[in-house]
Amino acid sequence: RPVRRNGMTIVPLSRRAGGLQAYKLIMPGSRRRATPDPRSHEGYEWLYVLDGRLRLVLGEREVVLTPGEAAEFDTQVPHSLAADGATVVRLS
Fold first, then answer.
1. Checking DSSP bridges between strand 23-27 and strand 61-65, what pairing results, if any?
2. Is the CB of residue 23 less than 8 Å from the CB of residue 31?
């Protein structure tokens, strides 16, 4: 069932304990261009933008991903995700 955390809605798509997990994230848009504090943790992440514009900060780099674009990265690199603009972002 969906969980709300840090303003996002997180919908689990897989139910396996440990190992590979899949989620759908829904992030509200914002007219302010705030950048969440980058975080790092063990693991590896792959994401695919379904709707909206996603701002991905990965180490010293910042990119904006649009629907149909994907990213993958080692989560030990400090990273943050945020909507780029006022439109809701949906990613998986």
1. unpaired
2. no
